[in-house]
Structure to design on (113 residues):
């Protein structure tokens, strides 16, 4: 059980606040769905979207006022990750710190295993 908890992807406080803010503006629940798709310059890419509710087989984690949900297939590729929200001169974005990724790209939205 302890291994599962340490490998559960989590939102940082900054990401949870941003999800809650976006969800409030759109009149939706503060649930961010993280999924992984084939593509991008490194083989896989992250996809973010607000969800109305978790699916029955989703893994769900709660941080402050927001939840992160991940489907079982994507979970194999993002176990142990954290999702952060960063703002810089180049823009603002959700970023995944993924210990499973062996390679990444400069944009931070694509990775390889």
């Amino acid at each position: 059980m302890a291994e599962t908890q340490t490998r559960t992807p989590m939102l940082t406080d900054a990401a949870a606040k941003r999800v809650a803010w976006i969800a409030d503006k759109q009149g939706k629940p503060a649930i961010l769905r993280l999924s992984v798709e084939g593509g991008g310059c490194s083989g896989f890419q992250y996809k973010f979207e607000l969800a109305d509710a978790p699916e029955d087989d989703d893994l769900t984690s709660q941080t402050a006022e927001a939840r992160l949900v991940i489907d079982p297939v994507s979970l194999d590729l993002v176990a142990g990750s954290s999702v952060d929200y960063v703002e810089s001169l180049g823009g603002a974005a959700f970023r995944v710190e993924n210990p499973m990724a062996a390679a990444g790209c400069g944009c931070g939205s694509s990775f390889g295993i």
About this structure: Residues 13-26 form the longest helix (14 residues). The chain has one domain: 2-112.
